[in-house]
Fold each of these.
Amino acid sequence: MSVSGVALPDARVLRYLGVRVLQVIPTILAIVVLNFFFLRLAPGDLAEVIAGEAGSASPEYMAILRQQFGLDQSIWVQFTKYLTELAQLNLGYSFRNSLPVLDLIVSRAPNTALLMLSSLLIAVVLGVLFGAISAQWRGKWPDGVISALSTVGFATPLFWVGLMLIVLFSVELRWLPAGGMQDLEHSYTGFAHMLDVARHMVLPVFSLAFFYIAIYTRLTRSAMLEVQELDFVRTARAKGLNPLPVTLRHVLRNALLPIVTMTGLQLGALLSGSVVIETVFAWPGMGRLAFDAVFQRDINLLLGVLFFSSFLVIVSNLVTDLVYALLDPRIDIR
Amino acid sequence: MTAHASPAVLDVADLTVRFRTPTGLLTAVDQLSFSVSAGETLAIVGESGCGKSVTAMALLRLLRSPPAEIGGRHVLFEGQDLLRLRERALRNIRGNRIAMIFQDPLSALNPVLTVGDQIIETLKRHTGLRGAAAHRRAVELLDLVRIPEPARRASDYPHRFSGGMRQRAMIAIALAASPAVLIADEPTTALDVTVQAQILKLLNSLQRELGMALILISHDLGVVAETADRVLVMYAGRKVEERSVLDLFAGPLHPYTRALMRARPRPEELREFLDEIPGIVPSLADLPPGCAFAPRCSVAYEACSATRPALLPSGDGGAVACIRAPLAAGGVVA
């Protein structure tokens, strides 16, 4: 009936957000420093890669390239320069792609977001559904089947799932495209374009979701079994409520709390999972961008992608906290 | 059997509850019979583990089965045998004609639903009330259980209520559908002493106003003396004595009842130590063959351990299960 406890007062939320953003600054700074120095540990640099491709790796040519890219300066000068530019929200220039890093990220990020959010949505919906069924029929055959499948899902590597799905649905059955984001032979527009992208999405989204469906299934099952034993569920049954309202309103509603926490924490892992999936399915997203940047020693681009990703994870954790406060009235935002 | 002329609203005959455990079958309640009439308060008293809470839960078949197995001759209520009623029909009685409140009001309410919503849930399930009318009724019920500012409090979550307030809210939920029988399982045990008295007073006055039968489960003889009309004393899953409250306190017949009374703090007679009952409650897994209390009893002799004593009428409308009872009674009354 009443939603007064759910509607959060704006001033308090804003103050809370302000405090949280201030807390985030040292975290971001640490991430930036670690990224910068760790990436220098990898042998080779962009000049070597480009010179190698050109086939004329003379010391003079490489020295010119290094001077051009700013790689001839000391690491401290490079670091100071990087920090100053970052403070102005300038992520630098990708010499490899001849484009500003930010432009590259902005062009790829929506594709990754599409992949990740679709996978996450499917994983949460199916995982919670399977977990709820499993908990409700604990020890019966549906629980057995779901538990067995989720163990398989839990133990199977992402890339293998992707490859097997390609073998089955693209190679053998020829139902779905094996990779890419759109049909290269036709250029569809409007609704046909959406349909085309959707067809290309099916396999990568399910490959990525596979593991997470298993995680959410197990999490939901154990959370629901735990909540089922609590006193207020007994109260709900003593009220004469039917089993479905007891499960949905009382058990599941409370079991969702740990699931929300887990979802927030896993966004980072999901991002790294999408690097694998984007590589397997030639999906033009940020994961692919990072993957290519590693092999091309395109440090500026890689730093940009990593910075952007960590920023996303931090923001998603913040959103998780807010959602949690919405779901659990006992948590006061301060 | 009772001094009350009104017919029984709930009649329990030979109720037996067993639990299937890895080590064997435990009998938690053994052929328990009692009845309660409208407007009457029956107290069921005993130490922890004597089966009184299991009895309360078994009446509405709220125990999970397995492991619990509920049997007996009948539990008659409004012409229906609750032991043989189908689950669906039983749900129409739970929270509607027979309601229950529990020991720990802190955990008996769902933390993520407002108190008002939890009352409305019962109203929607068992009465025709919906929407604004249901909300109005919920506020009335909170007012009935003497919660100040009921309209505002209805939209609060349980964590904003004190322990006593939560138990009042639980009572409001229980009374929502105007039940004929209210089962209160240790309703004041988790509360402060001053709050205990308030809740008992409230229960008593509500019972008078609404003409309900009240089954009060308690281990506290002080609570029982103030509230009950009739008292049933349980030991190791069996009824050992049942008397009107005046008769019982004037002259307890069973040695166990007398021991319980001596173990009770009495303000008129300050002592450094309370009397305790020697020994421990026997394990339900290996009850002695005769009287279950015999090993701890101060007046037991060989015959006590030979056969299980039958319930005998005590002459004042009560009953006692002790072969030494007449002798013991003489000692106390004189």
Note: Residues 190-228 of chain A form the longest helix (39 residues).
Amino acid sequence: MTTVLLGPQRFRQTAGTVADALAPDGPVATVTAGWRDREKDDAELHEVMGGRARNLHLFTRLGHVVRHDPTFAAAASVYNRSIDEANKLYKVRLSHAMDAVYTILRRTARQDLIDSALRAGVQSVQDIDAWYVWLTAELEDELRSVGQVDSSDVIAGHRGEVAEILDSSALLAIAGGHVSFLMRCLRLFEAFPSPDLPVVGWSAGAMVLTDHIVLYHDKGPAGVQPAEVWDRGLGRVPRVIAMPHARRRLALDDVHRNLVLAHRFAPARVLLLDDGMQVRIGDDGSLPAEARVVTAEGTIATIEDEASASEDCAS
Amino acid sequence: MRKLAINRLLERAVDQERATRFVTRHGSPIVEGDRATFLWVGEADEVLLRHRVQGLPEPLTMRRIPHTTLWYVSIDMPKESRVEYQFEIVRGGMRESYVNDPLNPRLAHGPFGASSVCAATGYEVPAWTLPDPESRPGELVPAELQSKALRRTVRFSVYVPARFIPLVHYPLLVVHDGDDYLNYASMKTVLDNLIHRGEIADLIVAFVPPGNRLVEYANNAPHARFVARELVPHLSETYPLLGTPSGRTLMGSSFGGIASISTAVRYPDVFGNLLLQSASLVFTDIAFDHGGGAVFDPVVKFVNAYRARPRRVADRIYQSCGMYEPLITPNRSMATVFREAGMEVRYREHRDGHNWENWRDRLREGLTWLHPGEQRFVYE
């Protein structure tokens, strides 16, 4: 199973080179659903892919389904509202639990007591994350059954066309953009690449390939906010939380925040994907030596440097 | 630290020619570090600076430099603060009030006219309040509603975001003093920019001007009934709205803030969010004189009653107030009361006064907190 995760492509384009290396010949199935209404403005991507791109047009297909399948449209509307409400409830729980963790981190007390409170605090956050993932999966199941997703002729038609393109492609390339629309389109049309099909994804396209999609923006107008689990991903890259635009969006100089981030998502690794980053996932799902991650100590290091530091500590 | 320009001027004898050169060189006000010096030139018996800054003597008497027509006064001007001011000129027993600074081109506008602006070191007009050609403009749709509650036709404007799709359900924001927010707080430009940047959600926004403002906004039952039982249902029939309290926000500044909170108190099931800017939350405790005059009587009665029996009337409140306003103390106090009543409160203070540019500058923080946009979802 060949999978490569890339950093943002806006300033340093590497997707074309990687695509050539992974699949020198044959069509490249592309997904630009994250671009939403600009999905079809993909001439530049087509060029980057050496004129081999075949866009799955998942966002356009979603629009078609909403217009032609009223059962699905009604269920999707309810689903969107429910997800919005569930997310608000999740954030209430999450912000209180995260506040507790940071308050404990700032407290002065016997170290073993602090450590114990921290472990319990992080566990609470993990429980809330897990609850939210469960809740969204329940709502997803509700959408599938009420919206008759698996018996809709309209959806089935699109799924068939998508599968046909994927089956005849040498590579799947998933561009970034709006990660929620992107994931929902992939799921609705079952654009799930087979293990044999090489895949490259960048920014949001990398996020959807992991187990869980985590949103974050410490430098937004509302200031530093807790990272939030949003949805399940395709799970092709297990035990990794992909964080593109890390320098632009994360307060990486805050060791306490980094530390909590690393422990909260453990055993998954928090992988930082900045401009120019290229991470080839091993067959066993492992990260390469040069991948940059947030360490358990709250620092930023490559896998290689982290391993060396651990050895130094051990000796 | 270097002496202030005005003190350097005064180190040597000053004649009219030197004073004129000084004014030409520096203009007014002169902002140096944490101090600002205001200048006025002309014949007068007395020149006063009106600034509306809580804590400073109001007005400040300006000093005349002997043998010249140059008047000055210096005040502390903390970093990033913003003060609106005017002069009052006394000549031969006649008083000329509300005079803007002729040496200062920077004006702020409001429903009662313009005022001169002194911006301290570090203050910049936020870029998101200025027109951005990249931002796709939403549309302002004129609307009207025959109100049984108010017994008049209410004319208002509805902002429809640029990417409006009838299939999507939108949050609703109802704005008191709607015309003033559009005219003096650049709110359409702000919405266009923040939506374009993905910082706030696509919103449907009703900009509603008042009739008799001091009556309708001062805890007025017909006004509350109009907003909750006429306007919101009308908008819900006209536009695809989320239709839940968490998808509805009511906002206003000054008396508009009282109109917002008092409507929420009367109809606690309608608005999940309140955005209160410098709300006139004046109250009394053991004293009777609230100092606001007769128009504040119903406001004080309302706030006193709420303080006696605080209750949850919304999920979340974004509340802001300028540090230089007389309303700062009641706002600080009420933030705690709202919080203890079980509401999630984000209270913010800024170095500014009771004016529209302060309220404009706070829109981003309030709206992004109450209705965050898609920025957190977008990883290009």
Note: The radius of gyration of chain B is 23 Å.
